[in-house]
Amino acid sequence: MNGGHPQDLGLRAQADAIAAGDLDPRELLQATLERIAERDGPLNSIVATFPEESERMLAAAPPGPLHGVPIAIKDMFQLPWRGPRDGAPREALPAGESGVYRALRDAGAVIVGVTQMHFWGAGSTGHVSAYGPVGNAWNAEHCGGGSSGGSATATGARLVAGAVGTDGGGSIRLPAAYNGITGLKGTYGSASREGYTHANSTMGAAGPMCRDAADARLLGSVLFGRDLAAGVANASGLRVGLVRSPFWDDLDPEVERACRTAVEATGWRTSEPALAGAEHAQVAAVLRLTLEGLPSLTEQDIAEADPLTRGLVKYELLLPAHWLVRADRVRSLLRRAVADAFASCDLLVWPTVAAPAPRIDNPTVTLPSGPIAPDAVNVRQAGIANLTGQPGINVPVGVHSSGLPIGLQLVGPWGGEELLLDAAEHVERATSREWVDALPPTASASAQV
Q1: Is-contact 84 100, C-beta < 8 A?
Q2: What Cα–Cα distance (Å) separates residue 146 from each residue in 150, 152, 196?
Q3: Rounded to whole angstroms, how far apart are CA atoms 220 and 346?
Q4: Domain limits of the chain?
Q5: What is the assigned CATH class of domain 6-430?
Q6: Whole-number pLDDT of residue 444
Q7: What residues in the chain have per-residue pLDDT under 50?
Q8: 382 — phi, psi (to 5°)?
C-alpha cells in the first residue's frame, strides 16, 4: 500500500491486494465507511450504509473475483435487509434477494451502501429526489447526474471503487460523463432483472460504474454472469461511425473539440453513416420511458412526488395511446438502421453529453442554440441505445474550462460488451490515461489510482 489509503485503489487493485494477502478486507470495509462519513456530506451520493449487514456479508463472503471488495448499489434493487425506494420516500419493493445482489454476493463482494438516484429514475440530473440533490464529484454545487447519479458521484469521488447503476435512457452513461468515470450499459437483458424496481421496463439495463474500462470489465463480468474477455478485436483498427446528425449537432464547443481530439488520437477509420429515424429517437425514448412506467404508479406515489413531477405525471396520463404505438414504429425503424450501420462499422461514436453538468440551483445547460433543460438533450444523446437494446459505454476524454469532465460515448452491436471495453481501453491508451486517471478536487491529492 506504500502508506496510501486503501480506498484510493481501483477495483482490480483492491481485489488483487486482498487475494495476495496485502490488504485486509476488514480494514478496507472500515476505511470505506469512514471515507463515506468524511466526504459524502456535500455530495449526498449515498443514502444508506449498514455496517452490521456489510460485516456479516464480508464474514460469509465466498472466494470469488470480488472477494472482500466494497461495492455500492443503486436504490433500485432488493437487498435482504432493505427494500429499494427508487429515489422516492417509501419502498417500491420489500426487502429480498435481487438477482444483482446474489451475483455480487456469490462473487464475494460486500455491499457497503445504497446510492442516491433521481426520483423514480425519471431524470438525468439527479437534482430531484426524496433525499435531496446529488452533487458532482468534481464540484458539489453541480449536478451529479441521473438517474444513477449517486453511483457515479461515489465512484468519481473515490468513496467506492465501483458501483452498480441502471440505464433506461442514459442513466449510467450520462452521470458517468458528468463525473469523469467509465459507465457501461449492458445489452438489454444481460443482467438479472429479478428484484429490480423497473423489471418490466423494455428500456432499462444494469451495468458497472467504475474508474476505468478494466475495472468495469471485472464488475461487468460479475453482473452479467459471463467473462467479458479482453482482446476480442484489434482495437486499434476499428471502423467507427460518427453519426453527425443529430448526435454531433448543437454541442458545447469544448465538448465537441475534446471528443473529436480523442477520436483522432485513436487512429480509427471513420465514416459518417446516417441512421434513418435518428432525429425521432429523442421523442420516442421519452415517450417509451414515461408511458411504460405509469401503470406501476399508485395515487399515493403521485401524491408524494414533488409538484413538478406530479404535474408531469398527470399530463402523461392524458397522452393518447397511439403516441406509444408511433414511438414503437420509430423504435423498429431505428433497430433496422442500427443493424445496417453495423454492417460497415464496428462501433458508433458521439459525445455522451452535449454539455458538462449544470448547477444544482440552475439545472440548465447552454448550447450554441441557447439555454436548454439538460434532460432533453441528454436523452437525444443516449436514448437510442435503450430503444435498440445496444450496449454503450462512456469514456472520459477531457475536462471542460468549467472544471467539469467531458465524456465520449461508444455504442456497440448487440452483445458487444467485450468489444466496447476493448475500444474504451484503446481510447484510454491513446489519450495516455490523462482523463481516466484525473482526480476530482473532492478526492485527496495524494490518492493512488
Answers
A1: no
A2: 8, 9, 17
A3: 21
A4: 6-430
A5: alpha beta
A6: 56
A7: 2-3, 445-449
A8: -115, -30
